[in-house]
Specification:
The chain is of the alpha/beta class. The chain is built from eleven helices and nine strands. It has a single domain, classed as Alpha-Beta Complex (Spore Coat Polysaccharide Biosynthesis Protein SpsA, Chain A). Strands 1, 2, 3, 4, 5, 6, 7, 8 and 9 form a nine-stranded mixed sheet that branches.
Length: 267
């Protein structure tokens, strides 16, 4: 399990407590801090003392590289059969690992050995006090369309990092991370799909996705309609960034990207 932290002291302890309440105890937590100036590392060290055999802090002199690259640096430093990204401010449901791993093993049984596999789940959107704002984060992501048309992954972000589990084969095809990629979860999912792997999204909710002043953009963007997303300044920036990334790294032409964008924004 990979946890990238940065000035997360306000919610970190509650997240860590939810990890160690998991029904599945067979995991090891690796933490990389990106240069926090608050009590984040103190909280981490408190939990290391409580669970000395289950937490490793990956200490580097490099800091302030951003969430995506912090997660990727952490992923590079860890060797395991399976990996999960963990955000610092959410709450994991007690059976998150158990359910996700059961799905992972089922998907792996359906594909050949050595095939990259990513499994993700749904999230419940909550406010900073954990009051429910929305029962399903994935409701606006058109997951049913993605299941029929996996190429939709090129133009819609259907895999959320804090819900992901992926196998060692998916990790192997995800390095090096492109300089054009801005999201670690999207990058791993794209690399998996374009290397003949399998990306599977479960319907079950396994995470309370906490919304506060530092991260409300994700849920707010997912809830916008097509025109609002397209006309927003950040929407245009993301559009051209995606075009360059998909063309350079995966050979997706601009006409094909535009076709996908038109098709899967309306379905």
């Amino acid at each position: 399990m990979l946890l990238a932290t940065y000035n997360g002291s306000k919610y970190l302890a509650a997240q860590l407590e939810s990890l160690f309440r998991q029904t599945c105890k067979d995991f090891h937590l690796y933490v990389r801090d990106d240069g926090s100036t608050d009590d984040t590392l103190k909280i981490v060290d408190d939990f290391v003392r409580m669970y000395p055999d289950r937490i490793t802090v990956v200490r580097e002199c490099v800091s302030h590289c951003g969430a995506a690259r912090s997660f990727i640096r952490l992923l590079r430093a860890v060797d395991a059969d399976y990996y999960m990204f963990c955000d610092q401010d959410d709450i994991w449901h007690e059976d998150k690992i158990e359910k996700t791993f059961a799905c992972m093993r089922k998907v792996e049984e359906e594909v050949d050995n050595g095939v990259p596999v990513v499994v993700s789940t749904d999230l419940r959107v909550v406010d900073e006090n954990l009051a429910v704002m929305k029962e399903s984060f994935n409701a606006n992501l058109k997951i049913d369309v993605f299941r029929k048309h996996p190429q939709m992954l090129c133009v819609r972000h259907v895999v959320t990092g804090c819900t992901m589990m992926f196998n060692a084969d998916a990790k192997a095809v995800s390095f090096p991370m492109s300089s054009l990629s801005t999201m670690h979860d999207e990058w791993v999912a794209l690399c998996t799909q374009f290397n003949e792997g399998k990306v599977f999204v479960m319907d079950e909710v396994t995470v309370d996705y906490r919304q506060h002043s530092s991260n409300t953009l994700g849920a707010a963007t997912a809830g916008r309609g097509f025109f609002k997303r397209a006309l927003a300044r950040e929407g245009w920036k993301q559009f051209f960034q995606s075009v360059r990334l998909l063309h350079r790294e995966f050979g997706v032409s601009f006409p094909r990207f535009l076709l996908y964008k038109i098709l899967y924004s309306w379905m």
